[in-house]
């Protein structure tokens, strides 16, 4: 793995390590036997091996009926600092920080795209990807959410796995595909990708379809069964 791309991965790993070292509180639960607690609430934190997390996800057929990207209000400016969600991700993930101008215009800076193992020095060459695409979220349960819940999903800055800056070319190759049909071109990133996919689906209690389950299980069988720590959004 190249060190320049590991900031987000290190943050997630540190959260997992801290969760394992810190005694369980009323707001945290260590999952045993691959099952989430019978009762949980948004804000509860769970830790479990990724393969157990996959086994705990609901398996169901998916439907895209009624989907429109416009049903997920995205790239909002929640803190009113002129930097929208896309810009906030670019600022957080820059290997070398860009200069921030009027209306959050970014100049300079260097970014690493883990999907295809490339560096970029121009923010316009990057997309900010929803790791689990909006259409996939809709298929997997978000169709039943309120508009505000979908907006929160589309602008999730609280979990570093939810949104990721990658090359525009790799993101557009991915489109709205799940791991059944698409994995990053850079194969050393596959384990991180599918592990984060399971973490995101766990965070939002999204379902997986049978083909997706099989693809994830096959890929994770070749990966370390590392623990993931997830703060539940639902």
Describe this structure in words.
The model is unreliable at 1-7 and 11-34 (pLDDT under 50). The radius of gyration is 17 Å and the shape is globular. 33% of the residues lie in helices and 14% in strands. The protein has helices spanning 7-21, 50-56, 85-93, 134-139, 147-154, 168-174, 190-203, 210-220, and strands at residues 28-30, 45-49, 99-100, 106-107, 111-113, 118-120, 126-130, 163-167, 227-231. The strands form four sheets. It has a three-stranded mixed beta sheet with strand order 1-2-9. A two-stranded antiparallel sheet has the order 3-4. α2 crosses α7 (190-203). The longest helix has 15 residues, at 7-21. The chain is built from eight helices and nine strands. β3 and β4 form a beta hairpin. The protein has 234 residues and is an alpha+beta fold.
Tag the structure with descriptive keywords:
234 residues, alpha+beta, three-stranded mixed β-sheet, 8 helices, 33% helix, 14% strand
Count up the helices: 8
> How many β-strands, per DSSP?
9
Radius of gyration, in Å, reads 17 Å
The percentage of residues in β strands lies in 5-15%
Task: Specify the structural class.
Answer: alpha+beta
List the helices and strands in order.
Answer: HEEHHEEEEEHHEHHHE
Uncertain regions: pLDDT < 50 for 5+ in a row? 1-7, 11-34
Summarize model confidence as the mean pLDDT.
Answer: 88
Order of strands, main sheet, comes to 1-2-9
**Gap from first CA to last CA:** 33 Å
Note the main sheet. Answer: 3 strands, mixed
């Amino acid at each position: 793995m190249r060190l320049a791309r590991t900031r987000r991965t290190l943050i997630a790993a540190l959260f997992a390590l801290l969760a394992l070292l810190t005694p369980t509180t009323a707001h945290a639960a260590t999952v045993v036997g691959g099952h989430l607690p019978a009762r949980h609430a948004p804000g509860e934190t769970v830790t479990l091996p990724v393969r157990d997390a996959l086994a705990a996800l609901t398996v169901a057929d998916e439907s895209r009926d009624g989907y429109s990207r416009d049903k997920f209000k995205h790239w909002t400016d929640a803190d009113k600092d002129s930097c929208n969600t896309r810009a906030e991700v670019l600022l957080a993930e820059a290997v070398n920080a860009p200069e921030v101008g009027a209306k959050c215009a970014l100049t300079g800076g260097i970014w690493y795209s883990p999907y295809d193992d490339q560096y970029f020095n121009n923010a316009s060459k990057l997309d900010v990807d929803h790791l689990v695409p909006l259409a996939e979220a809709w298929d997997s349960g978000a169709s039943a959410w309120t508009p505000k819940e979908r907006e929160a999903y589309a602008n999730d800055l609280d979990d570093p796995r939810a949104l990721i800056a990658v090359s525009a070319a790799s993101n557009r190759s991915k489109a709205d595909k799940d791991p059944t049909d698409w994995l990053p071109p850079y194969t050393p990133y596959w384990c991180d990708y599918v592990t984060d996919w399971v973490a995101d689906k766990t965070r939002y209690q999204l379902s997986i379809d049978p083909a997706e389950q099989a693809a994830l299980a096959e890929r994770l069988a070749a990966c370390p069964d590392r623990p993931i720590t997830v703060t539940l959004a639902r």
